[in-house]
């Protein structure tokens, strides 16, 4: 039986774009379906860290809004600030432009792009998967589910045990002299919102400002906290604010396997974002690349599954599972956070920068510094 495609990818975010690029480049007949018309918006601060940049194709170029060489961690109770700088640490992009550039790059390498085409349902069979859109059906040997946090289709086949954090962000347009206050520094503020953090990321002509927090027992008026954070930074109503929007970030991996029948889960749909920083690009790229490689090199679904799980084991699933253990006490225990920052703030900031550069891992850090693991275990959340 002939199928329409070797690979269908659902979703044109970083996970889907990079997966489609790699399968198409390897000569597989690839189609990418995106429900929105491209270019499309995505709620995201658009900070792409160095270790994620390192995973991009060599011949891929994309519009850069600004570069932050410095990471700043600010504690507000008590007031303490730590900074660490490295060249090109975080590249600030607009998701509208970045995701579109990556999708066009996949198209240039042979992928068929179907934008404005929502996949309504999928049906897996032994030899292929059937994809239904509003207008017609397609068949494919393998399906990559890169549909993001909402994961409507993935949730029909996988139990949704991902932990979802809520985040709110907006863009505030500033005159050059005010923007200069924020230039070159990616800033994270703790003790602004309970069990989470606030951030300010400088872009070309505006700042992206936001808050993210673990789900909480008691209701928090996140918009009020957001306004207070703006005021604290001298961002008055005189400056134009656009696109205040909230969304979810899945920060713990699903517990089941990441491939079922001929369907592979990648990126946010799989729950692959960092539970400490909520950074999603690195794991979206890594899982998209490994899913593509597994399909290219595997001779049948069981080999594809084996290759995919081996590919993401160390750098995605082990890493995220290790950091999940760290994140809850870190965010839920003010006391532990205080102790960590007071005693090891400068080291933690440097360690975080090493991590964002790809020079160290959470698993490596926990193995090396067993005192962190011991300290975490000793404090009751
Ligand atoms: C407020 C906020 C700020 C963030 N800031 C950062 C940051 O600075 N740095 C960072 O690394 N990460 C950040 N993240 C996380 C990051 O945005 C995600 O981890 C990342 O986008 C995941 O990529 P993805 O490809 O898995 O999914 P997405 O980027 O969400 O892409 C999924 C795509 O699938 C499409 N789709 C869904 N269903 C269908 C369907 N049925 N048919 C066709 N198409 C479909 C969607 O329209 C979408 O285009 C942030 C997240 C939030 C919410």
Task: Note down, in words, how this protein is organized.
With 381 residues, this protein is α/β, with parallel strands linked by helices. 37% of the residues lie in helices and 28% in strands. It has twelve helices and 16 strands. Helix 1 packs parallel to helix 3 (95-108), helix 8 packs antiparallel against helix 9 (301-332) and helix 11 (362-368) crosses helix 12 (370-378). The protein starts with a strand and ends with a helix. The structure holds flavin-adenine dinucleotide (FAD).
- Give the cofactors and ligands: flavin-adenine dinucleotide
Provide the low-confidence segments as ranges. Answer: none
Q: Care to count the β-strands?
A: 16
**Approximately how much helix is present in the residues?**
25-40%
Q: In the residues, how many domains can be counted?
A: 3
Number of helices: 12
Summarize the helix and strand pattern as letters.
EHEEHEEHEEEEHEHEEEHEEEHHHHHH
Output the radius of gyration. Answer: 21 Å
CATH architecture of the largest domain: 3-Layer(bba) Sandwich
Q: Could you say what the CATH topology of the largest domain is called?
A: FAD/NAD(P)-binding domain
What value does the average pLDDT take?
94
Distance between the termini: 57 Å
Largest sheet: 8 strands, mixed
Strand content: 25-35%
Q: CATH first level of the largest domain: which class?
A: Alpha Beta
Shape by Cα distribution = globular
CATH superfamily of the largest domain: FAD/NAD(P)-binding domain
Pairing-aware structural class of the strands and helices? Answer: alpha/beta
């Amino acid at each position: 039986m002939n199928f329409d495609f070797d690979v269908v990818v659902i979703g044109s975010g970083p996970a889907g774009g990079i997966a489609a690029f790699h399968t198409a480049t390897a000569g597989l007949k690839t189609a990418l379906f995106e429900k929105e018309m491209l270019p499309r918006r995505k709620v995201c601060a658009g900070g792409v860290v160095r270790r994620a940049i390192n995973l991009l194709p060599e011949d891929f170029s994309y519009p850069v809004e600004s570069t932050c060489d410095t990471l700043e961690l600010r504690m507000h109770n008590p007031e303490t600030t730590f900074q660490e700088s490295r060249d090109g640490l975080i590249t600030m992009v607009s998701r509208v432009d970045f995701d579109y550039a990556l999708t066009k790059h996949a198209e240039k390498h042979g992928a068929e792009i179907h934008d404005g085409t929502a996949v309504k349902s999928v049906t897996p069979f032994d030899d292929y998967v059937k994809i239904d859109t509003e207008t017609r059906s397609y068949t494919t040997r393998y399906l990559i589910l890169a549909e993001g946090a909402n994961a409507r289709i993935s949730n029909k086949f996988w139990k949704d045990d991902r932990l979802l954090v809520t985040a709110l962000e907006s863009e505030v347009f500033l005159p050059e002299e005010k923007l200069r206050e924020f230039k070159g520094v990616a800033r994270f503020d703790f003790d602004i919102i309970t069990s989470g953090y606030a951030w300010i990321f400088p872009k070309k002509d505006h700042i992206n400002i936001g808050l993210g927090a673990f789900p909480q027992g008691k209701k928090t008026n996140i918009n009020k906290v957001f306004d207070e954070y703006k005021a604290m930074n001298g961002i008055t109503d005189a400056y134009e604010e656009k696109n205040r929007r909230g969304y979810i970030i899945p920060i713990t991996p699903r517990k089941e396997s990441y491939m079922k029948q001929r369907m592979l889960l990648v990126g946010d749909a799989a729950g692959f974002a960092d539970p400490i920083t909520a950074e999603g690009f690195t794991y979206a790229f890594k899982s998209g690349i490994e899913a593509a490689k597994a399909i290219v090199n595997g001779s049948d679904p069981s080999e594809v599954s084996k290759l995919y799980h081996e590919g993401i084991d160390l750098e995605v699933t082990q890493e995220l599972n290790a950091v999940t253990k760290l994140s809850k006490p870190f965010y839920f225990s003010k006391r532990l956070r205080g102790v960590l920052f007071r005693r090891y703030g400068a080291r933690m900031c440097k360690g975080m920068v090493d991590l964002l550069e790809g020079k160290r891992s959470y698993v490596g850090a926990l193995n090396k510094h067993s005192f962190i693991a011991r300290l975490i275990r000793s404090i009751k959340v």
